[in-house]
Amino acid sequence: MHYVYTLWSKSDKKFYIGSTTNLKRRLNEHKLGKVYSTHRFSNAQIIFYEFFLSKQDAFRRERYFKTTKGKKVLRLMLRDSLEEIN
Fold first, then answer.
1. Could you tell me the pTM of the whole model?
2. Which residue did the predictor score with more confidence, 43 or 2?
3. What are the φ and ψ backbone dihedral angles of 40, each rounded to 5 degrees?
4. Closest listed residue to residue 47, CA positions, set 11, 12, 75
5. pLDDT at residue 18 tops 90
6. Nearest to 5 by CA among 81, 63, 62
7. Which end of the chain is less enclosed by CB atoms within 10 A, N or C?
8. Secondary structure letter of residue 1 according to DSSP
9. Mind listing the pLDDT tens digit for each residue in 27-64?
């Protein structure tokens, strides 16, 4: 399985989008501050993930979510969740 996941930083009001084959391990790495891109996010939490059988499909989805349009789509998809956690 290949996962694409989204973390939300409550303090920065920003997304972090990533992909992995081991979601539990990767989230633990984020929590422990071992990931350079998110070590400054003190309270980032996972708000969304998808899984794929194909690595290429997962990377394609990750790249899309990292675009301006993809981030807008995420905000629309998760608008109620974002309101709840903010």
1. 0.90
2. 2
3. -85, -15
4. 75
5. yes
6. 62
7. C
8. -
9. 999 988 888 888 887 688 999 999 999 999 999 999 99
What burial letters (b/e) apply to 38-47, b meaning 16+ CB within 10 Å? beebeebeeb
Give the containing element (helix H, strand E) for 54. Answer: none
> Quick one: which of 34, 70, 48, 69 has its CA closest to 4?
48
What are 54's two structure tokens? 């194909």
SS percent in the chain: helix, strand, coil, step 5: 45, 30, 25
Half-sphere exposure of 77 (CA within 13 A, CB side): 11
DSSP annotation string for 21-38: S-HHHHHHHHHTT--GGG
Classify residue 65 by burial, with Cβ atoms within 10 Å: 0-12, 13-18, 19+: buried
Number of residues that this document lists for the chain = 86
CB 61 within 8 A of CB 17: no
Joined tokens for residue 57: 């499909």
